[in-house]
Amino acid sequence: MLESDADRLAEIQALGNGATLAAQGGTGYSVVFDEQYLPVNDVEERGPVATMRSSDVAAAKLQKDAVVQVSVDGGVKAFRVKRFEPDGTGITLVYLRSA
Known about the structure:
This protein is 17% helix and 53% strand. The chain is of the alpha+beta class. The chain has one domain. A seven-stranded antiparallel beta sheet has the order 2-1-5-6-7-4-3.
């Protein structure tokens, strides 16, 4: 278990390959970005997910349907926030969809 917010940031930065997520015109926050298969009502759906610190979600003032930009591998993609899934340890999965 990661003990502090600084520990969570270090882990995300180590795993995230320099990926960042920012609300339009806002500060970029380190994330682990993945476009994975997600089970939805017994059907798999491909969808992007950003794993980030819960404190960064709050600082960015992210809300459902907000447009965000994810920078990864030298490119930038726009998404809308679909939903949030905090895990209770200071990490939140931010499920995204096409903007």
